[in-house]
Amino acid sequence: MFVLDTLTHRLKRGCETMDYPAGPAPALPDRHGGALRVDAAKCADGCNACVPVCPTEAIVRPAGKSVALDLGRCIFCAACVEVCPAKAISQTGDHRMAVRRREDLVLGAAGVEELRLAAALDEKLRKLFGRSLRLRQVSAGGCAACEADVNVLGTIGWDLGRFGIQFVASPRHADGLLITGPVSRNMELALRKTWAAVPEPKIVIAVGACAIAGGPFVGRPEVRDGAAAIVPVDLYIPGCPPHPLTILDGLLRLLGRLETGDRAPVAAPVTPAT
User: Fold this and answer.
1) Is 8 a domain residue?
2) Range of the domain at 218
3) Which candidate, 158, 166, 150, 149, places its Cα nearest to that of 19?
């Protein structure tokens, strides 16, 4: 009887795994503004209203130059969006933020307004990995927020395994590392040893502001300000924490499973949630 009830319940519920990427991407929650956009041409001369409110010093405006926003250091608090009188910095609501190069996360500089989205691994690596990816996750001093959103991808709604992407217990069984946290001094040696244990060829994915640039802990002597100080990084996924959809988008782009454009299309700015 118990088995029959279970089967009946399963048939009533149907498939609960989302159609993405075959279907439309799920909408981000109202409190998640998505990627930021910088229109430096709107910045008034001498205006630095956004600079002092940034808790991670992700925004700079050198004398005589346009404002520059580093999404790698950004924790997406939207304080800059709220104080900018000219609305030069806006939220786009776009979940796509993963890039291959660290410098591609800097907006506003040299006229860059939107992100240059991640390209796939080269053909040789994709042939070696096939259509699968085995990752060893390393929490290098993280607060568990990024770790939690990575774990969400393994739930029935997301079902990361259907894309051939799995997390493994041993680095010797992995194709690479997925790193969260600012890399505390106490985790530095562990990260180095884990990296050394992964067989060649191998990749590294930095997830979250901490793993990219130190996050709220940037500049503190107790941390190394991100994974790139210890290991070479192949994919940067910004956020604090990044939404699971942002993480999945980055992983699929790395494997060449999504169409890749040079830049994310400009979406209509969204009003930050109160």
Assistant:
1) no
2) 123-254
3) 158
Our count of domains for the chain comes to: 1
Cα–Cα distance, 66 to 109 (Å, whole number)? 7
Judge whether 210 lies within some domain: yes
List Cβ neighbours of 78 (8 Å cut-off, separation of 6 or more).
33, 91, 272
Residue range 171-208, pLDDT digits in tens = 999 999 999 999 999 999 999 999 999 999 999 999 99
Any domain includes 181 = yes
Is residue 80 in some structural domain? no
DSSP structure string for 58-75: -EE--TTS--EEETTT--
Q: How many CB atoms lie within 10 A of CB 1?
A: 5
Annotate 77-142 with DSSP letters as a single string.
--HHHHH-TT--EEE-------BSSGGGGEESGGG--S--PPPPPPHHHHHHHTT-EEEEEEESS-
